[in-house]
Design goal:
single chain, 91 residues, mainly beta, 4-stranded antiparallel β-sheet, 3-stranded antiparallel β-sheet, globular
Length: 91
């Protein structure tokens, strides 16, 4: 039986890069991956920096304005270095 992450990856392959179907509020965490796995995109409600780990394990900082979407495959949003708030994961 496929894990939730495997199902999401299969759906991404089948659907391509279309819009997200599920939206989850993110609490940045330096240790834990996002509970639903890799995102299709992030939405940032209040401007600032978003410190991320992508699906390949690479660390980056995204500087975002308010109310912006970022088509990024994100595995973890780190608390350290993240100043943006109202961050949503799109799956």
């Amino acid at each position: 039986m496929a894990t939730p992450e495997e199902k999401r990856e299969q759906n991404i392959i089948l659907r391509g890069n279309g819009s997200g179907e599920e939206i989850i509020a993110i609490t940045p965490n330096d240790v834990a991956d996002l509970p639903m796995g890799v995102t299709r995109a992030l939405y940032v409600g209040v401007e600032g920096a978003v410190s991320i780990i992508d699906r390949f394990g690479n660390a980056s900082v995204v500087i975002s304005g308010a109310a912006q979407y970022h088509p990024l495959r994100v595995l973890r949003v780190l608390a350290t270095g993240t100043t943006a708030t109202n961050i949503l994961a799109l799956y």
